[in-house]
Design goal:
Number of helices: 11
Radius of gyration: 19 Å
CATH architecture of the largest domain: 3-Layer(aba) Sandwich
Strand content: 5-15%
CATH superfamily of the largest domain: NAD(P)-binding Rossmann-like Domain
Largest sheet: 7 strands, parallel
Helix content: 25-40%
Strand order of the largest sheet: 3-2-1-4-5-6-10
Shape: globular
Structural class: alpha/beta
Number of strands: 11
Order of helices and strands: EHEEHEHEHEEHEEHEHEHHHH
Number of domains: 2
CATH class of the largest domain: Alpha Beta
């Protein structure tokens, strides 16, 4: 018998992929979002804001599973929204699910909760120690999930590494723009930090598998085939064949420059980017493989190449009035000047 699945944030970048994947697997899907789903989607739409508990309770009527994907991402930079959406919103989702007798909740968290880990790989039991406002809000949301689980709500947490895939833009669009024009792309320092991505389709598969498993749990999700940041970018420029090259910038001055430009609104960076771009962080995904039967189909390289090809195919029509941060290319600001560097 088909389940009725509520996807909060189901019109955003990952939420829309998750909603369509659930639909393709035979679920009845209802999207709860401020903005309607893309034209032509067969999902049901419930308009609302996760900060509105009453609207969430109404949206949870008759629902078997809630997949919580509403988030203010680092590019939003609004600390008040980080808290009110990521924390208060999560609390409301959990309350509404409890009040309406929802059988399962799966909350999408973030690897930002770990900041710069002391050791890698990061496991589900590695303590969180976020370095910036977004990571702190996402960690607090996880604490709420654990509290709800201890009171009887069946809620699991899925933590993804940096998400790639068709339609993924945001800060990634800066990289694609440079590569498409044959401009140099940059790593901080040597670029030998091991950095793991995850394809949105692999993440959606993990979330839906977690939704089928009873009892609360936590799963770290990332590509099982990955390498250093330099290796990932090199795979992209090799594929593109535009003459773009991977170049190194001195890490400490580059961080200071990114922070200074962002502070005055001249570059599209958030603290997450200058703090973590040059650091190693990768997940041990053994638990998801063992308990969920999950496996990643995409490597870092295949995920970034697919994302780039989608960017090229849709470059002329990107963004839109209601697109999320991850669905819109950012404005380059003074970064335009770096395209002309030899």
């Amino acid at each position: 018998m088909p389940r009725t699945v509520l996807v909060t944030g189901g019109s955003g970048y990952f939420g829309s992929i998750l909603a369509e994947t659930a639909l393709a697997r035979g679920d009845r899907v209802r999207v709860f979002d401020l903005n309607p789903p893309a034209a032509g989607s067969d999902v049901e739409y419930a308009a609302g804001d996760v900060r509105d508990l009453g609207a969430l309770r109404e949206a949870c009527d008759g629902v078997d599973v809630v997949l919580n994907n509403v988030a203010q991402v680092p590019l939003a930079k609004d600390r008040e929204l980080f808290w009110s959406v990521n924390v208060t919103g999560t609390a409301n989702v959990l309350l509404a699910a409890r009040d309406r007798g929802v059988a399962k909740v799966v909350h999408t968290s973030s690897s930002a909760i770990f900041g710069i880990p002391e050791t890698n790989p990061v496991t589900e039991d590695t303590p969180g120690r976020p370095l910036e406002a977004y990571g702190r809000a996402k960690l607090e949301a996880e604490h709420l999930c654990h509290d709800a689980a201890s009171s009887g709500v069946d809620v699991s947490i899925v933590r993804p590494r940096t998400i790639l895939g068709h339609g993924r833009l945001g800060i990634i669009a800066v990289l694609f723009e440079f590569v498409a024009e044959g401009a140099p792309v940059y790593v901080l320092g040597s670029g030998d930090n091991r950095y793991q991505f995850v394809h949105a389709n692999d993440l959606a598969d993990a979330v839906l598998r977690a939704a089928e498993r009873e009892k609360p749990s936590v799963y770290n999700i990332g590509a099982t085939e990955f390498g250093t940041m330099r290796e990932t970018l090199q795979a992209l420029v090799d594929h593109a064949g535009t003459g773009s090259r991977v170049r190194s910038l001195p890490a400490a001055p580059a961080r200071l420059g990114m922070k200074a430009l962002a502070t005055v609104g001249l570059a599209p960076f958030a603290p997450y980017h200058w703090l973590l771009y040059a650091e190693s962080l990768w997940f041990d995904t053994a638990k998801a493989q063992d308990e969920l039967g999950w496996a990643s189909e995409h490597s870092n390289a295949s995920a970034v190449v697919e994302s780039y090809e989608w960017f090229l195919a849709n470059r002329a029509s990107l963004g839109g009035e209601h697109a999320s941060h991850h669905q819109s290319p950012v404005k380059l600001g003074l970064l335009k000047a770096m395209k002309r560097l030899p």
